[in-house]
Amino acid sequence: MKTTSAVEKSKPTEVWATFRNEFDKLLDRFADGFGTFPLFQPSLGAVISRFFSSVGVLAPCVDISEDDKAYTITAELPGLVEKDVDVSLDGSVLTIKGHKEQEAEKKDKNYYLSERSYGAFERSMYLPEGVDRDYIGAKLANGVLTVTLPKTALAQTKAKKIEVKSK
């Protein structure tokens, strides 16, 4: 009689969720050795996040941009309203999380269709230095969450070019 392992009995999304959690723990341990990573994750992180999102583990993809005054994070969250989304700051970690519950029902003379989908998502990232924590703002409009991270006055100063001299 053949026995099956726990992995074989698990649903594919559960296996990926477990793998992702373990991978996140590994990256966290790696980051501890180098101090706080900046908000902008390596492109590999973005690729991994998009991969997990495509296989059913919910982690919204985000776009991050920067100008002279602020960093801006946008995440597409179609069908969600403000009460479904939570944006929080714990230390230097910004977390976007929420849940989606969707039900559709169609009745006709010859058929009845009822669909339901439920799911939760979460995405966390380290803040870069120089963010004015007291003025972080978030808004959700047309299924797009925009989080604005204003820079402190010190962080807004222009970079200075330093001349390199030879002996």
Structure description:
The structure is a single chain. The protein has 167 residues and is α+β, with helices and mostly antiparallel strands. The protein has one domain: Immunoglobulin-like (Sandwich). The chain has four helices and seven strands, in the order αααβββββββα. The strands form two sheets. A four-stranded antiparallel sheet has the order 1-2-7-6, with no helix packed on it. A three-stranded antiparallel sheet has the order 3-4-5, with no helix packed on it. The longest helix is centred in the first third of the chain and has 21 residues, at 12-32. Mean pLDDT is 76; it is low at 33-57.
Summarize the structure.
The chain is an alpha+beta fold. It contains 4 helices and 7 strands.
Quick tags:
4 helices, alpha+beta, 7 strands, three-stranded antiparallel beta sheet, four-stranded antiparallel beta sheet, 36% strand, 167 residues, 25% helix, Immunoglobulin-like, elongated
Q: Approximately what portion of the residues adopt beta-strand conformation?
A: 35-45%
CATH architecture: Sandwich
Q: What coarse outline follows from CA principal-axis ratios?
A: elongated
Helix-residue proportion? 10-25%
Name the poorly predicted regions.
33-57
CATH fold annotation = Immunoglobulin-like
Name of the CATH first level = Mainly Beta
Largest sheet: 4 strands, antiparallel
Structure annotation, total helices:
4
Distance from N terminus to C terminus (CA atoms, Å) equals 78 Å
* Order of neighbouring strands in the sheet with most strands: 1-2-7-6
Strand tally is 7
Count of individual domains? 1
The helix-and-strand class reads alpha+beta
The chain-level mean pLDDT equals: 76
Query: How many whole angstroms does the radius of gyration measure?
Result: 21 Å
Order of helices and strands: HHHEEEEEEEH
